[in-house]
Design brief:
Distance between the termini: 26 Å
Strand order of the largest sheet: 1-2-5-6
Radius of gyration: 14 Å
Number of strands: 6
Helix content: 25-40%
Number of helices: 2
Strand content: 25-35%
Order of helices and strands: HEEEEEEH
Structural class: alpha+beta
Largest sheet: 4 strands, antiparallel
Shape: elongated
């Protein structure tokens, strides 16, 4: 089994296609849900689109847990950087 040194996040293209992503790192669990706005039937409006991040700690799925924090991020390369920093800050809080 591979050990990751950082939280894995998919590419921006993954979210542009309206895919949700759930992940974990230690006891940190999270769900990233895109809110996609379209410029045309085939083109995503990245400036108007966002990603909702929700996180919790524990062994159980989102439906069986209490959401501890939520934050909305822009759907952009910088937004993914900000999501990672937000998740890592909450991961470090549990290590203390």
């Amino acid at each position: 089994m591979e050990e990751y040194e950082q939280i894995f996040l998919p590419t921006l293209h993954y979210f542009e296609n309206n895919n949700r992503f759930s992940g974990s790192f230690g006891l940190l669990r999270f769900m990233l849900t895109p809110q996609v706005s379209m410029k045309s039937p085939k083109e995503v409006d990245l400036e108007a689109s966002t990603i909702l991040g929700q996180l919790w700690h524990g062994l159980y799925c989102m439906e069986k847990s209490e959401i501890e924090a939520e934050q909305t991020f822009p759907m952009s390369a910088q937004g993914l950087v900000d999501i990672r920093a937000w998740l890592e800050a909450h991961q470090k809080d549990t290590e203390r």
